[in-house]
Amino acid sequence: MPITKLQEKSLKHIWYPCSQMKDYEEFRPLVIKAAKGSYIELADGKKLLDAISSWWCKSLGHNHPRLKKAIIDQIEKFEHVILANTTHELIGNLSQELATLMPKLSKVFYAGDGSCAIEIAMKMSLHSRYINGDVKRNRFITLKDSYHGETIGALSVSDIGLYKNPYNTILFQPYIIDLIPYVHSIYDPLWNDCSEKWNTLEKSLETYIDSTTALIVEPIVQGAGGMKIYSKDFLNRLAKWAKKHNIHLIADEIMTGIGRTGKMLACQHAEIIPDFICLAKGLTSGWMPFSAVLTTDDIYNKFYGDFSSGKAFLHSHTYSGNALGVAVALETLNIIKEERLHTRDINHIMLKNMYEIKDKTGRLKNVRGIGGIVAADLITNNKTPRLGYLIYQAAIKAGILLRPLGNTIYWLPPLNITDDEIEELKNKTMQVLLETT
Ligand SMILES: Cc1ncc(COP(=O)(O)O)c(C=O)c1O
Fold this sequence. Notes:
With 437 residues, the chain is α/β, with parallel strands linked by helices. It has two domains: 31-63 and 345-436, Alpha-Beta Complex (Aspartate Aminotransferase, domain 1), CATH 3.90.1150.10; 68-338, Aspartate Aminotransferase, domain 2 (3-Layer(aba) Sandwich), CATH 3.40.640.10. The protein contains 15 helices and 17 strands. The chain has helices spanning 5-13, 53-56, 65-77, 89-98, 114-132, 152-156, 161-164, 189-192, 195-205, 232-244, 297-302, 323-338, 347-361, 387-398, 419-436; strands spanning 32-36, 39-42, 47-50, 107-111, 139-143, 175-177, 182-183, 212-217, 221-222, 228-230, 248-252, 276-279, 291-295, 364-370, 373-378, 400-401, 408-411. Strands 4-13-12-11-8-5-6 form a seven-stranded mixed beta sheet. A four-stranded mixed beta sheet has the order 1-2-3-16. The chain has a three-stranded antiparallel beta sheet with strand order 7-10-9. Helix 3 (65-77) runs antiparallel to helix 12, helix 4 (89-98) packs across helix 12 and helix 13 (347-361) runs parallel beside helix 15. It is globular and about 65 Å long. The mean pLDDT is 97. It binds pyridoxal-5'-phosphate. Pyridoxal-5'-phosphate binds next to helix 5. The site of pyridoxal-5'-phosphate has 14 residues, from helix 5.
């Protein structure tokens, strides 16, 4: 297909995220005309079923009429006012709502992207140690293959070399927990009991106890690391271990939160109460760069005092608590709760479909899933370089937006996807695998 003027102009000036720009010489940017529900419409009229909720955020699909109304109603009033020293009806309501998501986490600090929320939680943890005069606790623990964002702090506590390696000279080094008990589903025996693995692991953690300020986890599902699901018992044990040793637990629910794993928060699977919860992406159903850090009175009170005490948390982002984000987040929570989308069982049918593809194509292994996430690994002889990228291209031709993570393919569609759309996802994924592998 000859390049269009718009594609030419775009490639001349846009440096695309998460891309090798040379790839665009052969595969041009898709020209978007509109997006509605589970579909993205291209300029040539082609429709793509959004199997990955546009980087895991469009949990209510595209252009939801109630979210559109919420944002327009807010625009009629005001679009953004500095949050420091101000409040308004909707942010009062949203903050109250967010404070009910997890008992004891009743304080909300707002930011923009998910990575900013991670930086904030890390800084709050470190800063609270500083206030306590406990500056020896200045290290973080993270899980192998974890991902927490792209800013320097968030990247430091991530463990994906592809994103991290070029910057290693300035990143700080966390302790990394290996031996994670991964599961295929909640019916895996390890889901409820990982005691054997835990006993070995707990011993290896001993050396970290006195120097660690916080342990950071993606609860239950590691997204960018390959949609890996781990035992709820493991999370529960980690949380108890952290509490026992006065180590804060930061739950990065940026991908898993607000209904993605079959509960409102993934932490609820393990019945734990972390010290910090970071939310973004699905919080506004992907309408706005809008994130929040929830924390406890205990942490908050450490910072509370006369200004002269120098304890205040003086972190600020210009768009902290942006009013359009507030309006759309509040309505997102209303819709998810009213329609009970966080407990809707699409996992059963999506898992069944992925197993069917595995059986019929013989191209998949390690099928796994929880809530609105299902994944599997491609069987590859390593002779096809960048198989995932080829699959992405073939999927676009077939009419689905499927973006494998390396050799892992996954579905993470809008939580309100219809049964017919799930069927279409299955048929088209099957077709793509048969054509490509
Ligand atoms: C678990 C997790 N944490 C943090 C982030 C970073 O969020 P953002 O891209 O909004 O900065 C992501 C993004 O994919 C994520 O999946």
